[in-house]
Amino acid sequence: MDGGGQVLGKDLLSMAQLSGEALELLLRRAQELKAQHKAGLTHHLLEGQVLALVFQKPSLRTRVSFELAMRQLGGGALYLSPAEIKLGEREGVADAARVLSRYAQGIVARTYLHRDVEALARYADVPVVNGLSDREHPCQILADLLTLRERFASLRGRTLAYVGDGNNVVHSLLYALPGVGMDLRIATPPGYEPDAAIVREARALAAQQGTLLELSHEPERAVEGVDAIYTDAWYSMGQEDQHEARLPIFRPFQVNARLVRRASPGAVVMHCLPAHRGEEITDEVLDGLQCVALDQAENRLHAQKALLAVLLGERSAVGSAAAST
Ligand code: CP
Ligand code: NVA
What we know:
alpha/beta, Rossmann fold, five-stranded parallel beta sheet, 13 helices, 9 strands, 45% helix, binds phosphoric acid mono(formamide)ester, binds norvaline
């Protein structure tokens, strides 16, 4: 195996937990697994292991990619919809975590509150992965970095501009980009900036790594000459009631052909999906040649296979070594 256990902890709750070294290990492993999958090679790395998917919100990509990731590594997955567990309602998060640890070898949780995914990790004996919380979306950003690596020979010195809402996706970008040597420019409407404490931590990371971090309210300035433009919905799951009120505020932050023309000619356009076409991104840009949103979606599968191989595979290797002694 990779020796990933030395650079990764038990869980993945935040991109802040992944050092540059851990990112390099996971991305390299993801590239290998993707190439092997395309060549028709099968794996039995997680044979007999089951991943519980505890979801409080809907999902297409996260659910499907984790289920298929387990299947392609020889294991299985069990999807528990919002109606089933009723985390924190029908029973407390700690009890649910302890019980699930007796059945499954890992848990992926999509929660409203980040503290719920943290509590699951605290009380579960098995690895817990954040499949999106109100604060972060680390698995998405892992797949996004894989997508960028496929497009650019080296990420060091490249610049990504994030335009839109200062949400969970941008929080994970803030933690991740210094580790791969990328500069980050963020343009949000006033009042919709990313969390100030996360920005402070990201500034420290950027200073350590010698990368740039710039926040503004000017989308045109943010995208000037960049290598990648990233956007996401103007309102996240759980904020549906703010949709109408946000439309006029976010309108100047739409990623359209006019804005994309200001980026570098070889720039890629990124979106984690689902997209609200005609709002944060136009059809023309989302369906255009520069857009890599479908690669990002596909790479969820490969990036998460790498993550599961390290988090679950190494634990079982340690477990079986202990059992055989
Ligand atoms: N990008 C993403 O996480 O998509 P889902 O919400 O469909 O899982
Ligand atoms: N920011 C979005 C991401 C969806 C994948 C949300 O939380 O709804």
